[in-house]
Amino acid sequence: MSRAIQIRVSESVVRTVHVEDGVESPLEMLPILAPERMGELLAKELEDQGFIRDGNKATRIDPDGIEITVDLETATVSVKIGASADLAETIDRRQNVGIESKDAAEARLRDDVMRDLDDRLAARTEDLRRQVTQRLEKKLGDLRSELDGAVGRATVSALKEKATQLGQIESVVEDGAGNVAIKVKL
Amino acid sequence: MSDDEAEDLSEEIEVIEELPQVAASESDMIMMARALIAGPTGHDDIWALLCATRPMPPKIGPTSARLLEDTLRHTWRALWLRGGAKPMGTIRGGGSVRGRLWERHQPEPLAFTQATVKLLRWLVATPFAAPASTLTELPASPLSVGDQLVVYLALDAARTTPALRGIAIQPFVRAAPLAWLGFAPLLVGRNVKVPSFDSLTEGVGAIVLEALTGELARRWYASELGKRAITDPQELIELGAGQEAVLTQFMASCDKRGRRDLAAFVIDAAIPLLAKNLSPAPAELDSKAPLSTRAQARTAAGSLLRAVLRWQDWDQEHRGVRFIDDNYQAAQLLLERYEPIGSAGSGRVSGWLADLASLAPTTPSPDTITDQGATST
């Protein structure tokens, strides 16, 4: 008759994980002037909103870690957010086995523990990713309004510039809804 | 009774033709072919037919070959019943011909090869009640237009049965371009290649396609409505990518062959969507999925809409064709086809696409997810 013993396996893992999520979307820029000029006008509006221009890109990193990049050449905006965390997990597990199968049982138990550790870390990484996604999702509505406003103002500037090219501007009437009427004397 | 009377009676006896005798398995195969050709009226017992699994001998006899040939002769009639009899227009050599299918085209033979027999034998021999993954694979083989049509009819016949998925995953079925045009949502998947559509944009293939235009439009319309109820972003990404590949390659083939009229089902599918203001935007994608995946899924949902915008580009070209140009008649026919969508419809399609790609898209309200719940605006 074999003697029963208790084996104990304890494993700890500390892992640094990085998660990120983001979306890309076109900006609805009307082709009123040449694309380069439209990009310039948009860049000016974005700079007023706190964006920093670097060549054909205008970027802003908000206090909540969300990075907004506008490609002035292709008129697309990409919004992304990332987060890093050190995740630590420990599992301490015991099992009663016969002494003759001690080594095999210990190896099996250790494999189980390592697999469970990986599963727990994967679940916590996914949780972190979801938190990041939620933060980004909450921000998008406001960001869309902000960018639509910037695009709208850049479009009005482009219209005024185009009107100047056509003749002498007599009056410009803008309403609060973003509509603009420009009277030009040819 | 006198001898004379007996002679008279013998003259009245009718000569009864002997009924053709075939093996039970061959009979099942012919019944299957008849059910597929008959169309919806012959699909009542299709599930029973698909489940009546019977081992098939390696060859079929001459009698059953003759009966099968006789059944397949009714294929053109089946196509007329599926919409081919409707008066339409066809582009021919820069001009246009109007009328019913048989008025627009000379009679053309529709060839069926051994592949059709292979498919029918497989349909009879396969136990469709078993899980789809356990079915014997039907390998891909070269398909004539007739063979492709039988594949299309088989998918249509099985559409309300559990056998549909088992049939759709076969490499043989995925090698049929006509199956892709009619049943793309069933055939899409990772690493699945869309075949060339060149066999369907000229000759008899184009005639078959003309006959099926109405049916294809209804299928694409239903697929667009289905997108509104999809919640899994990956499913929508695969569906959209597959449809995009089908429409892009098919429309390129139509363009190459000067047969843009064959792609008119895209317009016909979009018209009811526009009339009912039903964009293919999914109502509620899984909120646990990453935003990047959801955004990709929404963009993928616009595959048919992008095809409509391709039609819009064509429409602009057709407007530029002058009366003295050779292809004036063809351009007029195509302008007429796009007219129900027009600039207002194109504008709405562009708006839907912009919204699908937007940072914060609007989502359809739950009561408008299905066609029935939709209200016209």
Plain-language structure description:
The complex is a heterodimer of chains A (186) and B (377). Chain A has 186 residues and is α+β, with helices and mostly antiparallel strands. Chain A has helices at residues 35-48, 102-166, and strands at 4-26, 52-54, 57-61, 67-71, 76-98, 168-174, 180-185. Chain A has a 5-stranded antiparallel beta sheet. In chain A, α1 crosses α2 (102-166). The mean pLDDT of chain A is 92. With 377 residues, chain B is mainly α. In chain B, α2 packs parallel to α4 (62-72) and α13 runs parallel beside α16. Chain B folds into 2 domains: 21-73 and 108-175, no CATH class; 187-374, no CATH class. Chain B has helices spanning 3-12, 24-38, 46-51, 62-72, 75-84, 101-104, 114-125, 145-157, 163-168, 171-174, 177-187, 203-227, 233-256, 264-275, 291-300, 303-319, 328-338, 342-356, and strands at residues 88-92, 95-99. Mean pLDDT of chain B is 89; it is low at 372-377. A two-stranded antiparallel sheet of chain B has the order 1-2. Chain A binds chain B through residues 21-26, 28, 77, 79, 129-130, 133, 136-137, 140-141, 143-144, 147, and chain B through 288, 290-292, 295, 354, 357-360.
- Mean pLDDT reading of chain A: 92
Question: Based on helices, strands and strand pairing, what is the structural class of chain A?
Answer: alpha+beta
Please give the domain count of chain B: 2
Global morphology of chain B: globular
Please state how the strands of the largest beta sheet of chain B are arranged side by side: 1-2
Oligomer state of the chains in this structure: heterodimer
Helix amount of chain A: 40-55%
Strand content of chain A: 35-45%
Shape of chain A: rod-shaped
* Radius of gyration computed on alpha carbons of chain A: 29 Å
**Extended strand count of chain A:** 7
- How far the N terminus sits from the C terminus of chain A, by CA atoms, comes to 110 Å
Which range best describes the helical content of chain B: under 10%, 10-25%, 25-40%, 40-55%, 55-70% or over 70%?
Answer: 55-70%
So how many helices of chain B? Answer: 18
Unreliable segments of 5+ consecutive residues of chain A: none
Order of helices and strands of chain A: EHEEEEHEE
Q: Structural class, judged by helices and strands of chain B?
A: mainly alpha
**Over all CA atoms, what is the radius of gyration of chain B?**
24 Å
Describe the largest sheet of chain A.
Answer: 5 strands, antiparallel
Total number of strands of chain B: 2
